[in-house]
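We were asked to recover a plausible sequence for a given structure. The inputs and outputs are reproduced exactly as logged, with field labels preserved.

PROBLEM: sequence recovery
POSITIONS: 144
GIVEN STRUCTURE:
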């Protein structure tokens, strides 16, 4: 399974490599599934190959949806991987407030501490949640 934000610098690429590593998978067979559900755009097998090889390609938003469809992973997981790889942001439930019904995810730069997030703290205050515990997950270990 791909790591998101900390363990791998290429979690989005890793997702593509993993699906291509499945026995019987080919660039063309995986590309057949790589259709963004929102726009209907289809990812070409040549672009899929570029992603897998770590070559340069255009980072269009619809590609994230296409890769989610191709890898059969949740869109939010693929978005987090793309954010980590494309712009260096880590996305996680650093507030420790997610439930099975609701996910609270904040994107942040690796090394960020709770005191570095005044806007998040203000948003919590506006929701009458200023006493909420903020938990950071960095490199797979929780901290505060």
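RECOVERED SEQUENCE:
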């Amino acid at each position: 399974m791909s790591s998101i934000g900390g363990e791998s610098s290429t979690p989005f690429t890793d997702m593509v490599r993993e699906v291509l590593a499945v026995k019987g998978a080919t660039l063309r067979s995986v590309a057949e599934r790589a259709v963004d559900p929102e726009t209907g755009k289809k990812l070409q097998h040549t672009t899929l190959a570029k992603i897998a090889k770590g070559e340069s390609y255009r980072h269009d938003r619809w590609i994230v949806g296409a890769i989610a469809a191709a890898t059969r992973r949740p869109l939010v997981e693929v978005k987090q991987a793309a954010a980590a790889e494309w712009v260096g942001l880590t996305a996680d439930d650093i507030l420790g407030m997610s439930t099975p019904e609701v996910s609270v995810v904040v994107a942040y730069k690796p090394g960020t501490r709770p005191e570095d997030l005044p806007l998040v703290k203000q948003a919590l205050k506006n929701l009458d949640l200023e006493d909420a515990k903020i938990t950071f997950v960095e490199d797979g270990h929780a901290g505060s």
